[in-house]
Amino acid sequence: MNKVFKLSLVMVLAMSVILAGCGSKSSSSNKSGIKIGMVTDVGGVNDKSFNQSAWEALEALNKDKGINIKYLQSKSDSDYNPNLNKFVKDNYDLTWGIGFSLGDAVKQVATENPNSKLAIIDSVVDAPNVQSVTFAENEGSFLVGVVAGMMTKTNKVGFIGGAESPVIKRFEVGFKAGVAAVNPNAEVKITYAGAFDKPDIGKSLAATLYNDGADIVFPAAGSTGNGVFNEATSRNKQGGSKVWVIGVDKDQSLEFGDDVTLTSMVKRVDEAVKKVTQEVIDGTFQGGKTEVLGLKQNGVGLPDTSKKNVPADVLAKVEEYKQKIISGEIKVPAE
Amino acid sequence: MDKFRKIFTLDNYIVPVAAVIMGLFVGAIVMLVGGYDPILAYSSLFTQVFGDMYDFGEAIREMTPFILTGLAVAFAFRAGLFNIGADGQLLIGMTAATFVGIKFTGLPFYIHAPLAVIAGGLFGGLWAAIVGFLKAKRGINEVITSIMMNWVGFYGANYVVNHFLLVPGTQQSENIAPTASISIHFLTGIFGNARLHWGTLIALVAVVFFYVYLWKTKQGYEVRAVGLNPNAAGYAGINVGRNIIKTMFISGVFAGLAGAFQVLGVFQYQSVFASSPGYGFDGIAVALLGMNNPFGVLLAAILYGTLTYGSAGMSFGADVPPELVKIVIGAIIFFIAAQGIVRWVLGPFYGKRKKEKVL
């Protein structure tokens, strides 16, 4: 009995030392200035796509304006609420939720903390203190569809979606419409990976599509798409017929190289994050509204690097369609 | 009291405690090498868990499934069975609870909520009993079948949610009826809207049940006898096969309840999972750390939940990147699982202690 008692006493003492230590340390992290927080979905800030764009935008603002930035990566769905709350309770000036899967959590946290400011990408949250930003992915996907339709040699192109959701549906439908507009004979093969963080699934789906005769694949699947690039790169290395990938969200030719990236459907997540964050810095932030960024607002589009692989006449056609969409002459379906 | 103390004899708990300390130590070295302040990181971890009522409530929420999956694995261990299938049993239990929660409407809450909980436990148990049946009747290794049943359970759960419960255009089921919710509303107010639920209480009851059943009943004696030596148990007239099936069933009930509580208490809906949430596998670590003892499992789950929930604090308070946090947590679990190393390091002290005891 004595020994047990002594040992537990030592443990309690050790514990109190640790706990005392945390009391003195935690207050030193307060810096002056504006604090912007960001919560990623399970992809994390190195997903070479969505979260990364957003984080790079915040890092740029950090450099230019000297604001304080911090991000928390979610390990699972149950982390969304505590992670958002962490920023909100620490009085961050704005908390970003990146991705549509955070919609419910942002809604709940915003309702419970009416004085906080939040913003979300890719989902519409109806709360007076939340700014929602969505993109007209169907318009941008239409344009890469035009490129794919004109450049396919096998008359077969593929699409790999992350998971069936309204956002990914817009990619799929826009892409199909774009291909059909310039090449009615081309076949668009649609598959879904069921996950945004599974490059291995992306790789095997891409292999199936390429084996099936498709020569251009357009993945809209977060880091699952990295597997598609991987598959295409190894195929091109082995020789045989040339295959292409169309990048998504960012200019992915910068990540994966020009010899495999035909073009990219760039979603200017960075622009959106910069814009809304700037509003907070300027004090003009207004919650409760939804901003849809399309071709007109330069929220989606093709990067300049496309001209390396896409011939001028195709790009001219793309420009032509772009103007038609902006002027409203062509209505791109969304679902 | 004396019995209670016997569970926590010196031998039993010095190794896990040392393992945790060594894990924290190695984690600190990793952080130092990475250029981060380990003291600030660990204190951030503690403030994340004990900092305010909301975080404390959420940490309790995080611990609950670990308690139950830990019990599930430990219970099977007691009968000499290695239940790696807790993950699949959890998902099946979760799906059953979600199904009852959504489809059985119009019931009063005092029938609906218990019914959903029971459905979760029952289906989790039956799922595990299949593994037990194959082991008992055909001698098929339960490790292999339970791993495979994880995948069947995983895709089965996704299939049910996708085809019967889905809100079109999303990746999640409809919300369960409010009558099936087991949230404790008067407590969530006190805990700053943390998602507390009755499941935590039931998990604590399960801890006591585990102890009473195994050490205070004839059936529990049989289970332990089978675990120590199935041949001897069979010779002594114990029906080994029936005990294996029964043990797997009870083990599965624990796991199924864990899944049911996640839906009924925390999310109120079930997602289409891209990958398994992994609670079942964490349960193996919890059971190991708890030395397959119910009260040990409880303590281990508290520790494990603290680490998991507190890890976000390390990113937040000390800017440790999430990859490094995973390494630190992994180091702690490594030492917990690899107790041989701990005993070896403790060797000199350990021997001395033994001698003292003789006096």
UniProtKB/TrEMBL annotation, chain A:
Keywords assigned by UniProt, alphabetized: Cell membrane, Lipoprotein, Membrane, Signal
InterPro entries: BMP_lipoprotein (IPR050957), Peripla_BP_I (IPR028082), PnrA-like (IPR003760)
Signal peptide (from-to): 1-20
Location(s) in or outside the cell: Cell membrane
Membrane topology: Lipid-anchor
UniProt keyword annotation of Acyltransferase present: no
Keyword Aminoacyl-tRNA synthetase: no
Domain of life: Bacteria
All copies of domain ABC transporter substrate-binding protein PnrA-like, residue ranges: 37-334
One Pfam assignment: Bmp
Principal place of residence: membrane
Stated family: Belongs to the BMP lipoprotein family.
Protein name: Basic membrane protein A
Species this chain originates from: Paenibacillus sediminis
Automatic annotation (TrEMBL), chain B:
CDD domains (UniProt xref): TM_PBP1_transp_TpRbsC_like
Superkingdom, natural source: Bacteria
Compartments in which it is found: Cell membrane
Keywords per UniProt: Cell membrane, Membrane, Sugar transport, Transmembrane, Transmembrane helix, Transport
Transmembrane segments: 12-36, 63-84, 91-111, 117-134, 196-214, 248-267, 324-346
One matching Pfam family: BPD_transp_2
InterPro entries: ABC_transp_permease
Membrane-topology annotation of the record: Multi-pass membrane protein
Protein name from the UniProt record: Simple sugar transport system permease protein
Organism expressing this protein natively: Paenibacillus sediminis
